[in-house]
Design brief:
Blueprint lengths: L4 H22 L21 E2 L15 E2 H11 L3 H26 L4 H6 L2 H10 L1 H11 L11
Antiparallel strand pairs: 1-2
């Protein structure tokens, strides 16, 4: 007997959430990358989206999200907007957390960086798909999406 669609999606979100928690709990500090100042970290021919203002001296540079990863986040969030509206803010925030952690793990394991700079989600969505960003904020009843990311 096939499971209803919502049960499959719930199981996937729960698995992603538990996987993210496990990886975050097991993670340690990562050493700074080595290389010359002229080296690039992206794939050849790829572009990256600057996700914040220039770093101030003594402060960590804001996370830079590649355009492909920004589009991926938009594509993941867009179909969930109706679920957020139906489920309400409480359950919707759980879904948002699972979605953001899954996205961060899919895109180069940037989960720890997203946790350190939760506003990267808002900056990325505002630049890549502002309509989806605004609809998610309204559906979840949040001032910004960073406020809905718990861990």
């Amino acid at each position: 007997m096939p499971l209803p669609r919502w049960m499959s999606r719930s199981a996937l979100l729960a698995a992603a959430l538990f996987g993210a928690v496990a990886l975050t709990a097991c993670g340690g500090t990562t050493p700074a990358p080595t290389g010359s100042a002229n080296s690039t970290t992206g794939a050849p021919g790829s572009t990256t989206r600057s996700t914040g203002p220039a770093a101030t001296p003594g402060a960590a540079a804001p996370l830079t999200v590649p355009d492909a990863a920004a589009t991926d986040l938009c594509d993941m969030l867009r179909p969930e907007l109706s679920n957020f509206r139906v489920q309400g803010p409480t359950l919707g925030r759980i879904g948002l957390n699972a979605l953001v952690h899954e996205w961060a793990l899919r895109n180069g394991g940037i989960n720890a960086q997203v946790l350190a700079d939760k506003a990267v989600v808002d900056r990325t969505l505002t630049g890549a798909c502002p309509d989806v960003h605004q609809q998610a904020i309204e559906a979840l009843g949040l001032p910004n999406l960073a406020a809905g990311i718990a861990f």
